[in-house]
Amino acid sequence: MTIDTVTYLADFRRKLELPAIVDVHTHFMPDQVMRKVWAYFDTAGPLTGRPWPITYRDDEQVRLKTLRDFGVQAFTSLVYPHKPNMGEWLNEWTAEFAARTPDCLHTATFYPEPDAPRYVADAIERGARIFKVHIQVGAFSPLDPLLDPVWAILADTGVPVLIHCGSGPAPGEFTGPAPIAELLRRFPTLRLIIAHMGTPEYREFLDLAERYPQLYLDTTMVWTDFSEAGAPFPTDQRDRLPAFGHRILFGSDFPNIPYPYAEAVAALERLDLGPDWLRKVCHDNAVHLFDLDAS
């Protein structure tokens, strides 16, 4: 988009009479981790498969100001370990980040390891409001027996888990809807948020959402020109979207997106599903899920 993002988003909020936007899929990480993530995107590695320029490659404080200037009321600090003995360290960082960043939803993560139940329970005790799991990067099964007590804790407490489990942008050994279907069969009250609408298995994850009323989906990157070029959302599934208007959450993947932030919102407007659907997706659903101040 050529229009100024701040102006576009201000107009968008004004049209919908939205006090703000809630973005459930943003990344804030320890500096050394974020720079490694950016370096991976710079190589167009096997998990991306094509050039992926980082649009908002700025220092942490600049990125925070950018989000706030966009009218984002609340956001996340999604982190994810790719090896053992990393999850608890990341949780220490996100707890500190949340303490000094009150508009960030206190985020935590975990990895299949013997200590995971202890540090997940500790993170919840300290105020974690959302967990992030990345099946593709972590290269582990959500059905790993080491995670059974973790899923039980999360099911009992109702703390949502935003999980990247679809097979996009590149499939992994444990990605796809089948493991998640089995996970939900075992723990049907889990509050999962399926990242990227389950790209590219959109249809199958919508089917799961029909079966499990606690299942949410986030819009991250979906319907943008960038994603439509690689994993287009099936046109025969668009008629299903209004029925899930109360369980779809706006996400952007900020700062790791290869286009202006406004494109993520414009992509939703292009669906032409009406102002009520947009208000729910961009604000109301997350306010309700996380019990935020609606004003």
Describe the structure.
- α4 links the parallel β2 (72-76) and β3 (104-105).
- A six-stranded parallel β-sheet has the order 4-5-6-7-8-9. The protein has a three-stranded parallel β-sheet with strand order 1-2-3.
- The mean pLDDT is 96.
- By secondary structure, the protein is α/β, with parallel strands linked by helices.
- α4 (87-100) packs parallel to α5.
- It has helices at residues 5-16, 31-42, 60-69, 87-100, 116-125, 135-138, 148-157, 177-186, 202-211, 225-230, 262-269, 275-290; strands spanning 21-22, 72-76, 104-105, 107-109, 130-134, 161-164, 192-194, 216-218, 248-249.
- It has a single domain (5-290), classed as Alpha-Beta Barrel (TIM Barrel), CATH 3.20.20.140.
- This is Amidohydrolase-related domain-containing protein.
- Keywords: Lyase.
- One of its GO terms (biological process) is secondary metabolic process.
- It holds the Pfam family Amidohydro_2.
Topology (SSEs and partners):
Elements: H1 5-16, E1 21-22, H2 31-42, H3 60-69, E2 72-76, H4 87-100, E3 104-105, E4 107-109, H5 116-125, E5 130-134, H6 135-138, H7 148-157, E6 161-164, H8 177-186, E7 192-194, H9 202-211, E8 216-218, H10 225-230, E9 248-249, H11 262-269, H12 275-290
Descriptive key words:
single chain; hydrolase activity; TIM Barrel; 3-stranded parallel beta sheet; 295 residues; 6-stranded parallel beta sheet; lyase
Provide a compact summary of the structure.
With 295 residues, this protein is α/β, with parallel strands linked by helices. It has helices at residues 5-16, 31-42, 60-69, 87-100, 116-125, 135-138, 148-157, 177-186, 202-211, 225-230, 262-269, 275-290, and strands at 21-22, 72-76, 104-105, 107-109, 130-134, 161-164, 192-194, 216-218, 248-249. The strands form two sheets. It has a six-stranded parallel beta sheet. It has a three-stranded parallel beta sheet with strand order 1-2-3.
